[in-house]
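Hello,

Our lab assistant flagged a job as stuck in the queue for most of the afternoon. It eventually completed. Since we weren't sure the result was trustworthy after the delay, we are filing this so someone can double-check. Below is the sequence as submitted and the structure that was eventually returned. Let us know if re-running is recommended.
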Amino acid sequence: MMKDYIKTEQVISHPLPETEELFTQNLLSNEIKGVETNFYIIKKQKEHTFKPLNRRARVLIILSNSAVVYSKNYSYRLKEKAVLVPLDNSAVTIESTIHNVELIEVLTDLTSDDLEKMNFTNQGKFFFRYFSEGVTYREKIKSSKTVNRTFLPVNVIPRMVLGSVQTEGPDQVKAHRHPMLEQLFWGLPGNHCLVKADEQEKHFGEKTLLHIPHGSEHSIKVETGKHMHYLWLDFFQDLESVSYIDDAHLPDKD
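-- returned structure --
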């Protein structure tokens, strides 16, 4: 087994210099074919424009509680963390207000089938969801006290789904595997848990991107007094495999 079987990369921690308006860090470069993940800090009272893409989808995960998002077709003043997906391939500008804005940009390649499906579903120009509006669900591998949310549902971006897991220790996500998809985790503030994949264990903290080894049997454990809170990003191999989400994610009980 490789020494770094569970690949992780943490955001470089340092203040944004007065002379810089933007900090960027590419995370786990080339770890998953066709997927690129970038971390950004936009200095307060500054802005950054994300240019249109060709045959790629862009998902913006805003990790700060205030920002302004706009393009030629829409404008949002954010009040909390959110997931944004431009569906019209237009430029998107993120403007910080009185605080720096932190965000993750996820880029994923689109196949011809993906593009055809996006055109067929006609989702409109923009997808937007606050973290607090995430649809809750249950999963057999998790305890009843675990809070699971979906932020980016099936078919907004073909073959990509995004959500979160949150619980307090002692608790765990039981061992499971899903060979039909690639999976990344992002540690949210206060996250402090242990990820096991096959025979290797690795600490998983905040502001860290972690790649679950493809096809591995993996589990996550959080000890007493510790917090588990992370984003999961699923990238499916084909359109048919996305049905796994409907099978594994059960409607939450009232």
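-- support follow-up --
The delay was a queue issue, not a problem with the job. The result is valid. The mean pLDDT is 93. The chain has two domains: 18-132, 134-251.
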